[in-house]
Amino acid sequence: MMKEPAQDSRTGSSRIAPQRPAQLPHPTASLGARLPAAQQPQWPVEAERDAVVAELSAAPQLVFAEECDRLRDRLAAVARGEAFLLQGGDCAETFGQTSADAIGAKLRTLLQMAVVLTYAASVPVVKVGRMAGQYAKPRSLPTETRDGVTLPAYRGDAVNGLEFTEAARRPDPRRMRRVYDASTTTLNLVRALTQGGFADLHQVHAWNRGFVTDSPAGRRYEELADEIERSLLFMRACGVRPDGVHAAEFFVSHEGLLLDYERALTRTDERSGLPYATSGHLIWVGERTRELGGAHIDFLSRIRNPIAVKIGPDTRPDDILGYVDRLDPVREPGRLTFVVRMGAERVRDRLPLLVEKAVADGARVAWVCDPMHGNTYQTPSGHKTRRFDVILDEVQGFFEVHRELGTHAGGIHVELTGNDVTECVGGGSAVNVEDLPRRYESACDPRLNHSQSLDLAFRAAEMLRG
After folding, report:
1. pLDDT tens digit string along 61-115?
2. CA distance 201 to 197
3. How many CB atoms lie within 10 A of CB 195?
């Protein structure tokens, strides 16, 4: 029986409720379509780009369809209000930070945050890193000028170099191959660490070694680790041997910015005949590339991975409903996540209408808070930074909106590092503005350091309990 047309709240007209398609169209079908593709580099030699794309198209996949399906199942629990998403990592990965120490430090921080959220708030935590692919960045301006010299803007190590020289800033498509190699290294190490003894819950104390433990968050974590250790000893004494304490389920994600790279690594799953972006488990589009009629949204609509869209303060209810219709026509929990980056001053005013319209339309999406990108400012010294109390206020506002609407605050998406850098101001172990030059190491935007990340996890756990 044919369904009655649903009333479209955006136009007042009737529209047919979306039905499940037999199969998503393959992404290569869009290669010939001349859709606008924002934020793409101008490669100087197209033949070099074509050679790299051909090489990547023949390379082994980085992640597997089964893993993407598992993450979609986990995110379905987030969308239903049964779990919480923790997503974090570098603003922009660099080729120089693929060492075991650098990767292990980020992973330790995320595991510690997940333990805090799981144990303190009694909620399952889905762990996703901004790792193994976050090598390209959108830019506000195509060029940068210093001392009267104008060069192309730094677009991430996937495109050009950070050094302010003509040679470094020249877009080089061969860097996409280096992204693939660096991502392979990162994924191999992450898989080894999360499935080996490193992620064993019996290591909760060891994860804190080498970090600042005299901070309020560090001391609080040690107390929580003591509680976990006693609980594990009690279970062992009772003969309980839970498998989940010995390994961690961990996924990777990145912004699907470079369409040459993403399309080259798209593969058809032999089991289902459906296309997957095998560059990462979860792919998102950002504020500068989320045009409904653009090439990035078109690409996301054609892959089977769980996907996300970042939405800012200028997002309209019509936009939200348009993304749902285009990217999740069958209203499948776990398929689509909205990452909210409103800014602390606007989240309480702008977010409620978007959530209300989505719920009224039958959307079954996960709502996640990115409290970083809407709260950046520049100091007189020229450093981009963020205040920890403002970051926390946006998270608090995000939770308040969902509590008032009776919906689920599904997670946090943060830029962080496992090192004790001085890039964001404030936190329990306070970083002052004058401290910023001391260890400002980010290639792009300011990140929370280890202590600030733990502090945020404890505060978010309190909000979840509340």
Report:
1. 999 999 999 999 999 999 999 999 999 999 999 999 999 999 999 999 999 999 9
2. 9
3. 14
Q: pTM here?
A: 0.91
Phi/psi at 167 (nearest 5 deg)?
-65, -45
Q: What is the DSSP pairing of strand 143-146 with strand 149-152? A: antiparallel
Residue type, 151: L
Say if CB 53 and CB 260 are below 8 A apart: yes
Helix (H) or strand (E) holding 275: strand 275-277
Q: Which helix (H) or strand (E) holds 283?
A: strand 282-285
Task: Point out which residues pair with 307 in neighbouring strands.
Answer: 283, 336
User: Mapping DSSP to helix (H, G, I), strand (E, B) and coil, where does residue 60 land?
Assistant: coil
pLDDT in tens, 285-323: 999 999 999 999 999 999 999 999 999 999 999 999 999
Closest CA to 348 of 383, 396, 382, 397: 397
**What is the enclosing helix (H) or strand (E) of 241?**
none
CB of 456 within 8 A of CB of 429? no
Identify the bridge partners of residue 285 per DSSP, sorted by sequence position.
309
Structure-block tokens of residue 115 = 């333990």
Q: 369 forms bridges with which residues in the sheet?
A: 340, 412
Query: How many angstroms separate the CA atoms of 156 and 461, rounded?
Result: 33
Tokens matching residue 75: 């995110």
At a CB cut-off of 8 Å and minimum separation 6, what does 268 contact? 26, 274, 275, 276
For 90-210, where are the E strands, in sequence order?
Answer: 125-130, 143-146, 149-152
Check: CB of residue 256 under 8 Å from CB of residue 264. no
Tell me the β-bridge partners of 145. 150
Cα(128)–Cα(138) distance, rounded to whole angstroms? 21
Annotate 307-357 with DSSP letters as a single string: EEEEE-TT--HHHHHHHHHHH-TT--TTSEEEEE---TTTHHHHHHHHHHH
What's the CA gap between 154 and 161, in Å, rounded? 6
pLDDT at site 151: 97
Both tokens of 53, joined, read: 């794309």
Which spans in 208-341 are helix H? 216-237, 259-264, 295-302, 317-327
Residue 7 has a CB neighbour count (10 Å cut-off) of 10
